[in-house]
Amino acid sequence: MLTDFLPILVLFLVAAFIAVFVIVVSSLLGPRKSTARKLAPYESGMEPIGPAITRIPVKFYVVAMLFIVFDIEVVFFFPYALVFRELGVPGLIGFGVFFLVLIAGFIYEWKKGALKWE
Amino acid sequence: MEQIQIPPVDLAVVAPLITVVGWAIVLLLVDVFFVPAGQKRITGYLGIAGLVMAGAVAAPLWGSDSSTFGGMLVLDNFALALTWIFLLIGAISMVIALDYLPRQGIEQGEFYPLIMFAVSAMMLLGQSANLIVMFLGIELLSITLYILTGFAYPRLSSEEAAMKYLLLGAFAAGFFVYGIALIYGQTGTVQLFSTAPGQESLAEYLGRQTFAAVDLTLLLVGSGLVLVAFGFKVALVPFHMWTPDVYEGAPTPVTAFMSVGTKGAALAALLRLLDMALPSLQPIWLPVLATLAAVTMLLGNLGAIAQSNVKRMLAYSSIGHAGYLLLGVMTVSERGVQGFLFYLLAYSLTNLGAFAVLIALEQRGEAAWSLDDFAGLWQRQPFLALAMAVFMLSLAGVPPTAGFVGKFYVFMAAWEGGLGWLALVGMLTSAIAAFFYLRVIARMFMQEPVRDVQPQLFRGLTLGISIAAAGTLIFGILPTLLINVVQQTALAVGR
After folding, report:
1. Nearest residue to B87 (alpha-carbon basis) of B12, B16, B15, B10
2. Ramachandran sector of residue B71 (left: φ over 0; alpha: ψ -120 to 50; beta: rest)
């Protein structure tokens, strides 16, 4: 029955009360003396040297694209290798087309300079 | 070991599709290897040639009724008509982009193959008879559009639009997949309708059931989720929040392209799903769709009134037009299908033309589309003003333009389908819409120029605007030309 879960509800209420009580009381009673050092983003770390939100060059996306090209290729190559004979000539043609499409993507990336890391 | 059976592939069914995809892949490589930077319009010419060729490849297939890949793709007159509409949309978008890209300093050869990939995805949606293939089409279309939306790369509004579109689009895709999973969970199939005797499909499954006996909850919830995903793609209210921002931020030819193409393709797929797979559930989904259409027409057109930015106004009005298109989708009748096709073509030509006029005016960067820029356009550039007037009248649905005939067609379909009140809502909202369309015309013809902006016309742009305006007028004055064609487009069963 639902009444069996009453202790859990009480537990929830107690937990919520304690959490709110501690936060409210400490914000009311606690002393506030802020210094420049305390207000720094990292209190005992390095001095900040500039805003963290800037534009950075993202070079990983070309690597990620290459990864997809080769990853997908392999994902389909392995099962195809297993049923190579059973699929016969139509399978070979179909896979050839698939492979050509992948290769086209690879050549495009290569020509675009994806393999160069400046 | 047992020989694995590969279903025979009927290449005729996919011939236009293969033409577009193959040409796009080759074009991508040709562009990288042979087309020098700064002359990327050559790639554009080649892309347009490819689309024209695909249209020619599709021509002898008219009248066929076949399917392939185990029934996953069908070819009927409906799909072929859509194919031509999408090819036309793609070609006009490329034509109006030829001069736009270099002028904005965002000329990249990839633009044209990307448009071709998007067109192929739309064609795939028009031909799909399987939920998985539909998902494939929607994803291919969305991913290319994310890239195209962010094509004006360093411009912040374009990046913002692409980001918003990506996040919401990915969310919608999740809805779609989950919906498919639930539908499959109940019925054990993702095929919309049987293309061969004995093939399991949704239509077959529903034909076997007696509704009182079976609990269809999973199927209904799944269809609802799929509908939400379509709602996102088509920008039906209440899933339209992204539309104005994305349409405004995207490069204008891309906005033109997706405001007509995405809607057409996604609604065509929805039409096939509702009319072929779930017609027996019409009593359940009709009230839902009718409400969506009514709210979409109302909010889309009311939202447009408040806009002083014409590009944003057109974005809102395109939301409203999705509602009118939906009228043709939800009446499971031949008239509805025909009305949908007619309206789609009329709306495509008109909207592409209207955005092309915006391109001609786009010189002051992002602020170039205020109503003030249109003031006195008649004195500065009569051709543009006349063309824009034709487009505005067509969007408002005033005879003798194609928009009027299209609206007449879908309203009649709704009326005959027993949705008289919805047709009435449509007419009322058209009257509301006339206000902001005619406001543009009034500004152009009856006011002195406010800004000293000389619109620039280039050959490609002039050609695009002329084609769109001519089509809008011809199909408005002689609608029978087109009606004769769309009347042959009954949905095929693909047996």
Report:
1. B16
2. left
Residue type, B41: R
Place of tokens 């080649």: B46
Spatial separation of the C-alpha atoms in residues A100 and A84, rounded to whole Å:
18
| Residue B35, min C-alpha distance to chain A (Å) | 13
Mutate which: A82, A86, A98, vs B, most B CBs within 10 A: A86
For helices B420-446 and B282-305, the axis angle rounded to 10 degrees is 20
Residue B447, φ and ψ in degrees, nearest 5: -125, 160
3-state secondary structure of A58: coil
CA atoms within 13 A on the CB side of B50: 28
Residue B188 burial (10 A CB sphere; 0-12, 13-18, 19+) = exposed
B174: closest CA among B201, B138, B146, B147?
B138
Where along chain B do its domains lie?
A: 11-486
Alpha-carbon distance of B301 to B430, in angstroms, equals 8
Ranges in chain B, pLDDT < 70? 1-6, 210-213, 363-368, 453, 490-495
Mutate to test the interface with B, among A83, A97, A106, A108 (most CBs of B within 10 A): A108
Residues of chain A contacting residue B3, judged by C-beta atoms under 8 Å apart: 86, 88
Q: How far apart are CA B487 and CA B481, in angstroms?
A: 11
Report residue B9 as tokens.
Answer: 């592939």
Whole-prediction pTM: 0.88
Residues of A in contact with B2 (CB under 8 A): 86
**Could you tell me the residue ranges of all domains in chain A?**
2-39, 60-111
Q: Determine contact, residues B145/B262, Cβ cutoff 8 Å.
A: yes
What is the per-residue pLDDT across B401-452, written as a single tens digit (0 to 9) for each? 999 999 999 999 999 988 999 999 999 999 999 999 999 999 889 888 877 7
What is the spatial distance between Cα A63 and Cα A74, in angstroms, rounded to a whole number? Answer: 16
Three-state SS annotation for B228-276: HHHHHHHCCCCCCCCHHHHHHHCCHHHHHHHHHHHHHHHHHHHHHHHHH
Nearest to B202 by CA among B71, B298, B62, B311: B71
Q: Which residues pair with B309 in a beta bridge?
A: B370
Question: 3-state DSSP call for residue B449?
Answer: coil
**Residue B466 CB contacts under 8 Å (≥ 6 apart), including other chains:** B387
**Nearest CB to A111; choose among B1, B26, B33:** B33
Helix/strand/coil for B68: strand
Give the CA diameter of chain A.
Answer: 82
Beta partners for B74? B67
| Burial (0-12, 13-18, 19+ Cβ within 10 Å), B23 | buried
The Cα B235–Cα B347 span in angstroms is: 15
**Whole-number Cα distances in Å, B348 to A91, B194, B313:** 41, 32, 16
d(CA B395, CA B378): 20
Q: Do B4 and A90 touch (CB under 8 A)?
A: no
Task: Name which of A87, A46, A56, A111 is nearest B33 in CA terms.
Answer: A111
pLDDT per residue as tens digits for the range B325-384:
999 898 888 888 889 999 999 999 999 999 999 988 886 565 567 888 888 888 888 899
